[in-house]
Write a structure and sequence with these properties.
Layout lengths: L6 E7 L3 H12 L7 E6 L5 H8 L8 E5 L5 H11 L4 E4 L5 E2 L3 H11 L3 E11 L17 E3 L1 H6 L9 E3 H7 L10 H10 L3 E13 L9 H17 L11 H24 L3 H14 L4 H13 L10
Parallel strand pairs: 1-2, 1-4, 2-3, 6-9
Antiparallel strand pairs: 4-8, 5-9, 6-8, 7-9
Length: 313
C-alpha cells in the first residue's frame, strides 16, 4: 500500500509572489499534509524566498526552494520530479489553490487501487478573490475512471489537480520540454498507456483566472493538438492495452483526423486556403469515414470560403 504521508508537492513559480503565498498556504491547510513542498523558483527575482519567510514557522511540512532552469514550467516540474522523495507527486501551479480535502481524497483512492496511477479532480475557474470556495460535500469524494479513449478526445485533467505515483514518471519519463503546449496532456496519455487514470468529480482545485496568465493563440494550440494526438497514435505502451486493439486504434485515428480538421478550419478562417485544404486532406487520409471531415471539406471547396463551425464528430 502506498505510504499515505509520502506526497511531494511540486510548485513551479516565476514572478508571482502574491499568488505563490496563497497557493502555498492552501497546501499547508490540507487535512492530509504532504511530506514535503518543493518550490521551483524559475526566476522570481527573490520573491519566492520572501514568500517562504511569510509562511507559518510552526508547520511540520518541510518546504524547500530550488533554483529552476528558467526554460519554462515543464522544465521546472522536471527539476521537481528529480528532487521529489515522496511515493506520490502532486502538482500545483503558483496561481492556483487547493481545497482542504483534496490530497486526502486523492491519496485514499491511490492507496486502494494498485493499478491506479494518476488521479485528478474537477476544478472551478474563477476570478474571485482567494477564500471564496465552493461547498464540497463528502459524497462527492467518489472516483470516476477516465478511459484512454476519453483522455485522448481531450485533456480532462487540469495540471494543478493531479496527484500521481512517482513510479509512473520512472516508467514513462518526464514532461517533454520540446512541446511548447499540451505537455501535461502528452504526459497523461503516456501514463494511461500502463496505468489506470481517475478523477474525483468534485471541485477541489481552484483555477484562478487573472491578467498575468499567458494565453496561447488558437493556431499554436491546434498545431500542438495534432502533434500530441499523433504521438499517442504511434506510441507502443508497456502494458499492451492502449491502442493495440483495432477498436482503440480506430478511436485514435478518428481523433487525429478531427485534430487535422480543426487545424484546417482555423487556417481557412485566417485566409490560408491552400494550407487548410492540405490539413483537411490529411484528415481524410487518416480516417476516410469521418463525416465531419467530409462535410467540412465539401462545403469549403464548394463555397470557396472558410467553412462554418461544425460540431465535433
Amino acid at each position: 500500500m502506498t505510504d499515505l504521508s509520502s506526497v511531494s508537492v511540486i510548485v513551479p513559480t516565476r514572478d508571482r509572489p502574491e499568488y505563490l503565498l496563497a497557493a502555498a498556504k492552501s497546501v499547508l491547510a490540507q487535512r492530509l499534509l504532504p511530506a514535503e513542498v518543493l518550490i521551483i523558483d524559475d526566476g522570481s527575482g527573490g520573491g519566492a524566498a520572501e514568500v517562504l519567510k511569510l509562511l507559518p514557522r510552526q508547520t511540520r511540512v518541510p518546504i524547500r526552494r530550488i533554483e529552476g532552469p528558467r526554460r519554462g514550467p515543464s522544465a521546472a516540474r522536471n527539476v521537481g520530479l528529480r528532487e521529489a522523495a515522496g511515493a506520490l507527486v502532486a502538482f500545483l501551479d503558483d496561481d492556483d489553490l487547493w481545497l482542504a480535502q483534496k490530497l486526502e481524497w486523492q491519496v485514499r483512492w491511490l492507496a486502494e487501487g494498485s493499478k491506479l496511477g494518476l488521479v485528478g479532480t474537477d476544478c472551478v475557474r474563477t476570478r474571485e478573490p482567494a477564500g471564496r470556495y465552493p461547498d464540497v460535500k463528502q459524497g462527492e469524494g467518489r472516483l470516476r475512471r477516465v478511459s484512454p479513449g476519453a483522455l485522448l478526445r481531450g485533456n480532462r485533467l487540469v495540471m494543478s489537480s493531479v496527484v500521481a505515483r512517482r513510479e509512473c514518471f520512472e516508467e514513462c519519463g518526464r514532461f517533454d520540454e520540446s512541446l511548447s503546449l499540451a505537455q501535461d496532456w502528452d504526459m497523461w496519455l503516456r501514463i494511461a498507456g500502463g496505468w489506470e487514470v481517475g478523477i474525483v468529480p468534485a471541485p477541489l482545485t481552484i483555477y484562478r483566472m487573472h491578467s498575468e496568465q499567458r494565453s496561447a493563440d488558437q493556431r499554436a494550440m491546434r498545431v500542438w493538438e495534432v502533434e500530441v494526438v499523433g504521438r499517442a497514435l504511434k506510441r507502443r505502451d508497456r502494458g499492451g492495452r492502449w491502442l493495440r486493439g483495432v477498436a482503440w486504434r480506430r478511436v485514435a485515428r478518428r481523433r487525429l483526423a478531427w485534430a487535422h480538421c480543426r487545424l484546417g478550419r482555423l487556417l481557412a478562417r485566417e485566409g490560408e486556403r491552400d494550407e487548410a485544404v492540405q490539413e483537411l486532406k490529411r484528415a481524410m487520409r487518416i480516417f476516410p469515414y469521418h463525416p465531419v471531415v467530409w462535410g467540412t471539406l465539401t462545403r469549403f471547396l464548394l463555397a470557396g470560403r472558410a467553412p462554418a463551425r461544425a460540431r465535433q464528430g
